[in-house]
Design goal:
phosphoprotein, 2 domains, PKS_NRPS_Biosynth_Enz, alpha+beta, 3 strands, about 50% helix
């Protein structure tokens, strides 16, 4: 649903003449951005979102993620010595996601 809302809002904005010079996305937003930019057709993007959602559903319960309000270096200190845990994403100077 979230992906459909993102793509739909971009279409509404386009109807009013708002055309982005560039687009960027994170997680499902990456597929929405690729679609809005013309790199993926609406059908291909929807197919990718469906396959990704199915994979996430099947993998549920096989690990965990946590968002930490610290930078990458501090997050690495926290997880040092914990096998199978690593930095999954650095979302900002004080926002790091770990997973394992």
């Amino acid at each position: 649903v979230l992906w459909a809302v993102m793509v739909s809002l971009a279409a509404v904005w386009a109807e009013y003449g708002v055309k982005p010079a560039a687009v960027i996305g994170h997680s499902q937003g990456e597929m929405a951005a690729a679609c809005v930019a013309g790199a993926l057709s609406l059908e291909d993007a929807a197919r990718i979102v469906a396959v990704r959602s199915d994979a996430l559903r099947r993998l549920a319960g096989r690990g965990a993620m946590a968002s930490l309000g610290v930078g990458r270096e501090r997050a690495e200190e926290f997880i040092d010595g914990h096998a199978g845990v690593g930095v999954a994403a650095v979302n900002g100077p004080s926002s790091t996601v770990i997973s394992g």
